[in-house]
Amino acid sequence: MSNNVLKQLKALRAQVRKYKDTLDYYEKLFREDGIIDNKEQAQLDQLNASIERIRNNISERETKLNFGNKVVNRFSAVTEGVGDFINQKDDIVNHSLVDQDAVNSTVTPPSEDTSGEATSSNPTVDTAPYSGSETWDPITNTRIKTLDARVQSSAFQFVNKVQADLNMTIRVSSAFRSIAEQDALFAKGNVTQARGGQSYHNYGLAIDVVEITNSGQANWNADWAKIASIGKGLGFEWGGDWTSFVDKPHFQMPFGKSVSELCLQHYPDRARELY
Question: Given CA atoms 217, 213, 210, 103 in this order, what sign does their dihedral have?
Fold first, then answer.
C-alpha cells in the first residue's frame, strides 16, 4: 500500500513540474508584448489552479504515510529535483495545456490600438501583403502580419532561412507595438530605452526574435552572430551592432527614415512631446 502511495506521489510531483514549467513558459511569452490581456490571464490562472489542486492531492496522500515512508518520500522529492537540474530535464512544457487561440491573440492588431495617440494605427504602405510560404510557427506568422507590408516578406524569409541554413527554429517575439505597449515596456526600466513613438516597432518596421529549443523553451543565449548574418543578408539592420544599447534580438528596416521623422508623420502629438 505504502509503495503504491510513494509511486503516486512521484507521478504527482512530475505533474506539478510539467504544469509549472508550462506556466513559466507562457507567462514569459505573454509578457513579451508588454501587457497580459484577460484571455491570457485566464490561461495562467487555470494553470495555477491545476498546480494547486495537484499539490493539495500530494499533501493529502503524504498524511497517510508512516514516518519511515515520509523520510523516503522526502528524499525522493529532493533527488528528483537535483536529477532534473543536473540532467537539464526541468523544461517540460506541454502546449496542449493552454488554449492556443489565446496564444495566437497575444499580438494586438494595429486596427485595435486603443492608445488614442496615433493618427494611423500602423503606417503600412500600399503594397500587397506577403503571400509566400509561412513559417513553422503560427505565433510568428500572426506577428509578422502586423508589420509594414514591405517588411513582411523579409521577415518570413528570415525565419525560414534560419531554420533551413542553421537547423534552428526562431520565433518573432515582438513585431508591431502600439504606443501604449511601447510605453508599458519603457516603464519597466530595463527592457527598452525607447518610449512610445521612438521605436521602429511602433511603425511595423522592426522585429525581435528568439530561438525556440526542442523542449519549447525560449533561448536568449542563441548563436546571434549566425542569426544576424542571415538577417542582415536580407536587408535588416541588427541591434547587436549598436554600441550604446546592444539589443541582439532586434532587427529593423528603417527605409532611410529616422524614428523622429516617422513619429512626426504618424504620431504628431507624441512627436511634439518628444522632439
Answer: negative
